[in-house]
Structures are given as structure tokens and as C-alpha cells.
Please model this.
Amino acid sequence: MTPQIMFTMVAIVIMFILMVTEIIPLPATMALTGVALCFAGIVEPAKLYSEWGGSTIMFLILMSIIVDALTQTGIVQNLGDKLFAGKIVQNQRLAIFVVCMFCGIATGFLSNTALVVMMIPVLATMVVKSNGALKMKYMLLGAATEATVGCSISLIGGAPNLAMQGALVDAGVETLGFFTAAPLTFILVVITAVYFSTLGYNLLVKTCDFDDSEVVEQNCQRERIVCPVWKKVLTLAVLVGCIVCFILEVADNQLICFIGVVILWLTGCAKPKASLKAVDWNTMWVLNFALVVASAVNTSGTGEFVADVVLDLCGAENASLFVVLIAVCLIGGVLTQVMSNTATNAMFGPICISIALSMGISPLTLCIPVMIIVNCAVISPLGSPCMTVALVGGYRAKDYLIVGLPLMFILIGSGVLGALLLYGL
Model:
């Protein structure tokens, strides 16, 4: 073990402790780690800020603006009104399934935190319309969980995806396409929706012994967004057009996004100030330094060192893909429950890449399932911002644990088997 590897590992351990204990804010923790790695000579000073203008963060900023236009024009609100009506508001289990599927898919294109915030008044309205047939406390946690699980449906689903993409780009290997992780993610979204409308629902009924009427009363009224139809059509056209151009590789992704943003701003479909305010700059800051950590793991040799240790524990040259997948998904699935999803993916990406190259397989075979599982931080209100937002529903830490723990193991098992079928054979 070289001094650089030792220092990088110590820095990551300290970063992990600071994240768990929350002694200082997460952005400060990430910045402190990056600066320490810079002083140690493991990363160049320019690396501390170069990612702000890099393709990964610019792509996320621009797509955040384009997607926010869906909210500004009222498209998301209208979609919620259409979906959550009729027989759905008369059957609790059916309502939970539909809400979960909607959130699991929508989160692939919207900010998961903003999605959960938007769903609170939607669910409150559903409860009022149901005349007692529905309970918000049985739906909100499922919505928040799906908003976490479904993040990997598209590359823009969240910063953790782009942290993994950044690690792949940094290593110079095959990178993720816009919908590369969608098949496996969709499977886990369906599993989660079924879980919350069956076993998860039963657990919620047993553990959530509180009244949610006050929450419903506070959130059942929401402001209606009035917008011309042509603006809604144009906004959808811009989003779909960007996605099609990404898939066809018409031009540089960032150039495509810049064109989309300019169209939305010039036509008034989105207001520049509101768009820029909607960008989660806290996430951008964390992502920047997460990529710094990922670079340090790669350049210091830490990724290769940890990869060798994992492979030795799994059987060295004879290690099977199944065993390795279980190992990396379990480690990533546990770490993400107590530390930033973005940082976990950034740190774990180079390790997965090194393991895959040592085994002679595509890095995506390991990176895709790990990225998806890392997004599944579902057993505590601290797992991800959208799980924290769900606290407004009256949930306690034990509620998250009782309902989320069985689901976490189901998702890890399903993720490993799904990855073998979709990417490993």
C-alpha cells in the first residue's frame, strides 16, 4: 500500500464519519475532503473547480432547467390530476400502486425532491376526494421511496447517476447511454410498487399508528397553474427532442441542452430567474467534489487496491460474477443508507471499474447495478433528500426502518439477478 493510497483511504473514512455524524454540513465535508486530497498532491488544484464547467455538471444544470419548465407550465400538475382520479381514489392498494409507479417513472426525468414536494398536495387532494377510503400516511412513504428507486431510469434522474458517469469518463472506458440503466431500474420500480401495495402496506398499517388528518388539511389546497396550451406542447417537444437527439447522438449533449434552454427562455415557456433558482446548487457543489474524490480514488491507485481486496475475498481469479455482484451491491447498498448517494457512486465507481477490468468484463456490468442500488437509500429519513421531505407525513425513524429494511434486501437481490440477466450473460 503506497502513501497515496493510504492517505486517500483515510480521507474517505473521515469523509464517511463526517457524513454520518453530520458535525458539519455535507457541502463543507465534500469541499474539505477535496482540499485535503489537493494538499496531499493526489489531485491537481485545478481539479477542485474544473468540474463546474465540465460536461457532467453542465449537463445536469441544463437538464434541470429544461425539466423545471414542465412544472412552470403546469404539465406535471395536469398529469397528476388526470392520473389520480376515478376508481383510483376509492381503493387504497390500487392508489398506492399507481402513485408508486407514477413517481418511480417520473423521477427519471424530474428532481426527485421536487417530485415528492409536488406529490404532497396531490395526495392530500386524493384523500379528501376519497371520503375516507384513502390515508395519506399509507401513500406518501411509497411515493418518496419510488422517487429514490427510480432515479436511474434516465441519466438525468439524479446527480448520483452523473457521478458514476463521471467516474467512467475519467477512466476512459465505455460510458452510460441516456437509458442504459432503464430496463433494470424499471424492474425495481415495479417490484417496489408491488411491495408497497402488498407487504409494505401491511407493515405501514401496523407501524403508522398516528393520525394524518392535520397534514391533509394543511396540504389539500394548491395553487392552479394557468398556461397556454401551445407553451405546454412546445415544452414537451423540447424535452422529447433533446432526449431523441441524445439517443441519436446528433451533437454534443451539452450543446443540445443549451439550444433547448434558449428556446424555452425565448418563448416564455420558462422564466430564466425561476429556472436558475430551481437548480439545486447544493447538489452541484456536492457533485463537483464527489468527482474530485472519484478522481483521487482512480489516480492514487486506491480503486485497484480495493478491487484486488474484494476479488481476493470473492475467490481471486476464480471469483464468479454472481458473487462479485452480491459483494459490491451489498457494500454500496449499505453505505448509501448513511452517506450521500452521489459521493457513494463517485467513490465506488472507480472500484467497480477496476474490478471489472481485472475480471475481463465490461465495467458497465458492475457499474449499472451498483449505481441503481446506491440510489435505493430507503431505510432512513437521511437516505436522500426526498426521503427527508416525506417526514411531513408524520413518519418516525422506526417507520422508515420497519418498512424500508425488507425492501432494501429485496431490491439488492432483484438487482443482482436482474443485472446478471440483462448485462452479465
Observations:
- The mean pLDDT is 83.
